[in-house]
Backbone:
């Protein structure tokens, strides 16, 4: 069970992700959580001591989330998290914090922009924030595989039940009916826990009219749209990864 301190910190982090440079008073938080003012103040002061919050010296005392507490999560090592991907990361967090039990979102971008990698970061974030159970599986369904079978049922028998944190990849505009079937089956199979589904598609703008009712769509920028510094960082990261694979300095 979460402590009052954990609940207050998560609430402040969530609101700060929605609106930068926001501050909170003990009175405001008391109205949100219906906890005694003294307990709220104790938790806030502990969070300041722990290095998560700062407080001003005026009246009323206002508490603000430190920058480092926003940065220190699973998205922090993504190149461009404070640049070209800043708004996409905020949208991804808002998507996963959305209160509905079954959440479905789109992620689009050219091939090679890192859609699958980004969705796996979303999965890590959802587990870290206890939005889904830590044992929830990450499942990727390649629509190209599903199309090899005569029916969705045949696909399920050969592979797995559709449940957990779900990534539907390599979708195309013409696959909309099949993707809808997968989403419907996911809803039928889902248990009481929160289910998050992300559909990865390269040409979402063309498909927008075919997929209605999705509150979130995340567009990853192409390499050309990213700044020169970010592109250099990506090249450096690729070389470092290859160096580790071959156990040699490049």
Residues:
């Amino acid at each position: 069970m979460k402590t009052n301190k954990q609940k207050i910190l998560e609430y402040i982090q969530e609101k700060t992700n929605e609106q930068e440079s926001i501050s909170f008073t003990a009175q405001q938080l008391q109205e949100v959580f219906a906890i005694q003012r003294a307990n709220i103040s104790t938790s806030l002061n502990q969070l300041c001591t722990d290095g998560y919050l700062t407080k001003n010296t005026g009246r009323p005392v206002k508490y603000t989330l430190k920058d480092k507490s926003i940065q220190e999560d699973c998205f922090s090592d993504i190149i461009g998290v404070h640049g070209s991907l800043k708004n996409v990361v905020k949208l991804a967090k808002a998507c996963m914090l959305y209160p509905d039990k079954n959440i479905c979102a789109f992620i689009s971008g050219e091939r090679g922009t890192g859609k699958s990698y980004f969705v796996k970061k979303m999965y890590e974030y959802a587990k870290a924030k206890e939005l889904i159970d830590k044992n929830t599986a990450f499942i990727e369904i390649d629509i190209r595989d599903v199309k090899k079978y005569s029916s969705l049922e045949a696909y399920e028998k050969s592979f797995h039940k559709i449940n957990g944190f779900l990534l539907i990849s390599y979708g195309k505009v013409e696959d909309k009916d099949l993707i809808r079937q997968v989403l419907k089956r996911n809803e039928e199979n889902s248990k009481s826990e929160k289910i998050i589904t992300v559909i990865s598609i390269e040409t979402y703008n063309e498909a927008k009219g075919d997929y209605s009712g999705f509150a979130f769509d995340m567009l990853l920028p192409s390499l050309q749209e990213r700044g020169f510094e970010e592109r250099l960082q990506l090249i450096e990261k690729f070389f470092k990864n290859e160096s580790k694979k071959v156990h040699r300095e490049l």
About this structure: The first helix runs from residue 4 to 18. The two ends are 48 Å apart (CA to CA).
